Amino acid sequence: MRMQPALEFYTADMVRALPEDGNRYETVHGELLVTPSPRALHQEVLFRLAHALQCYLDEQPGVAHIFLSPSDISWGPDTLVQPDVFVVPVKQASTLDWTQVTTLFLAIEVLSPSSVRYDRFTKRRLYQEVGVATYWVVDADEGAVEVWTPNAQFPKVERERIVWSPAGASSSFSIELNDLFRAI
Q: Mind listing the domains of the chain with CATH numbers?
């Protein structure tokens, strides 16, 4: 059986047409990113973080809205990503249309062994390029969070707590990493 050569450049529309087979498909500047279903640790940390953010945003009406992956966030024909957790302006969220969601106040990726390169390099560079205000790379295995901003050449690595202060909020969001990474 002769195999067809793999395409080297993927568009967002090509990724949307891929089968739903349990993998996550994304493209950044035409590079296809494929990751399998996440580990249980990934899902537990993701849930805890999303729950804490949702509770915080509920106390900050009108500031922002939280979404979880899967999603179709795109800034061009060769880009389609699915941040694990992301916070956007309420006006964009209220459209309930992924094509209208283009401003991410906060993007979060929880590392899995299969996503390390994509999350730390490929997607991080994209998020910086498009001006995502704050990007967290959550490393549960190391008990740390890398905090990136658009102009940062290196992350600020947090090992005790992470704090986020969105515009218009009356207080900051804060979560202790011991709580985030605690055992079940």
A: 38-180 (3.90.1570.10)
